[in-house]
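ARCHIVE CARD
Drawer: 12
Card no.: 0347
Subject: one protein chain, sequence and derived structure
Cross-reference: see card 0346
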Amino acid sequence: MTTSFTLTRPAPLPRQVPRRLLAKLWHHRSGRLGLILGLALCLFAMVGAVWTPADPNQPNYINALKPPQLAHPFGTDATGRDMFSRSLDAAHRSLGAATLVLAAVFVIGLLIGTTAGLLGGVVDTVLMRTADIAMTLPGLVLAFAVLGILGPGFLNLLLALIIADWAWYARLARSLSLNARHQPHVIAARLAGVPNWRIICGHILPDVALQLGIVASLALGGMIGAISGFSFLGLGVQPPHAEWGAMLSEARLYFTVALWLLIAPAGLIFLSVLSANLIGNALRDVAGAKDEQS
């Protein structure tokens, strides 16, 4: 019996994940491209959080609508603000907000879903019925409803997206935890007399977290697009602060005379979504290949 468990799955996957999975991701063609692009964007965002060549919010009407040049690589907007500085300043809001929302729904979904799946009974019923109620409306509709109650604003947008998405992750985590309870290495640990808390912390939670994390990584591109879309509609970051979606909204009024105003924010959104999708798809591929080998 022990031999069959060993042949089926020699060791819990999460204990081998961090370095091996990253190495496989790097050797995956699209994964490597996504990592390089993602690291470049993260560096861009980190620099923008602490330094910009010019004040991104200070108007300078003398320089209004200047085309790209050495002093202003991305040109200037209708009020003379440097578009490169605004793009740099906006990066940590656009990328950081998407990462923060996904991290929040990941943690909330993991805790609620695994609690429901492992405890069962009344706890499972209450938590999952609450999740069902939250899922009665499509995510975007629920987010609009929350923003309608709280009003527009960056923090309100983040809260609205968390409220709109947590239930789906909770249900997925519950399903994954129920499946993890019946994995051969978990059954073997239970038969060997390993305490329940060690089985949960050492086997079930890491397994569920890994699979839920892969799903969250696949959703990162969509979350970046959603945050930019809400800001484009004026429901996210408020003027004069910069955010890529809000910059697109401001630029749409001048696209016939100053097309460069659209290129920077649209290009950065495109590259961010592309990087997130490349990494997510590659992560799914290498994790799936590892499961098949196990």
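Annotation on reverse: The chain has a mean pLDDT of 88. The domain at 32-44+83-293 is CATH 1.10.3720.10 (MetI-like fold).
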